[in-house]
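Researcher: I'd like a candidate sequence for this fold, 110 residues long. If you have to choose between options at a position, lean toward the conservative one.
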């Protein structure tokens, strides 16, 4: 009797593989969630910092309005260039990994 003719034997062989795919998928999904949670949490900090700069610098007569706006937007530009772009790339790669795992599970379960 071959393994192709015995569906129970196929299920027994597939179960450890499925468990590995499942574990890999769960960890990748958690990584994906953590990436975007971190991106937006850091954005909140930078927006708060920008608001603080805008609030306290606007009370000073030593800076022009253009300088105040420039300094207030600097943390947000930094966030976009140094945090969002690289971490979003990691998020897209993780999403691609999740898609590949789903396809592997779908192809192997048939």
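Model: Candidate sequence:
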């Amino acid at each position: 009797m071959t393994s192709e003719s015995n569906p129970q034997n196929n299920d027994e062989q597939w179960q450890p593989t499925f468990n590995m795919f499942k574990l890999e998928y769960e960890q990748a999904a958690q990584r994906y969630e953590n990436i975007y949670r971190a991106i937006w949490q850091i954005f909140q900090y930078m927006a708060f910092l920008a608001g603080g700069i805008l609030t306290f610098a606007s009370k000073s007569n030593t800076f022009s309005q253009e300088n105040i706006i420039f300094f207030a937007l600097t943390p947000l530009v930094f966030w976009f260039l140094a945090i969002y772009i690289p971490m979003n790339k990691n998020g897209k790669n993780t999403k691609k990994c999740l898609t590949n795992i789903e396809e592997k599970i779908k192809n192997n379960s048939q």
